[in-house]
């Protein structure tokens, strides 16, 4: 009899295409391939949810990139507002929903964020200022952190139906990410016109 696939492996497998798709949307692909501008990067950083526990790093990045009055200069795009509303709604009422968005933000940001941070560092000449959100100084070994995180996912007392529901929520989170990159691309085009 074959061993059942651990929940974390099923989640990773089922969401990998959505994660990859969001990173390869026009706006993000341009940014990652060196065709984006510093302003494009600033627009992306300004759309991160302010409820993340890495808020001090995000605020420091925005102050460095925009200035001390950054709060008056940034505005959430429609997708960001919908995304935040979704996180607040499911996070407050459904543990699996909270975990789905936590997984997307933290494991996604840890996996891709280290890469994005290094790219932005090279592309725009940043040292650590401006990319603090993508630095994980309190995580000595990202690979070990992710392994423990996945072990904890596997230990969650969810039946198959609840696991499927969590996977669907992760896919929805990635869809929000893709839509955000599309919003950023449209905003860039309209400001260039």
UniProtKB/TrEMBL annotation:
Transcription as UniProt keyword: no
GO molecular function: heme binding; heme oxygenase (decyclizing) activity; metal ion binding
Pfam families from the UniProt entry: Heme_oxygenase
Keyword Oxidoreductase: no
UniProt-annotated binding residues for heme b: 12, 19, 103, 150
GO BP term (any one): response to oxidative stress
Gene3D superfamilies the record matches: Heme oxygenase-like
Keywords linked to the UniProt accession: Heme, Iron, Metal-binding
PANTHER family linked: HEME OXYGENASE (PTHR10720)
Protein name as catalogued: Heme oxygenase
Naturally occurring in which organism (per UniProt): Rhynchospora breviuscula
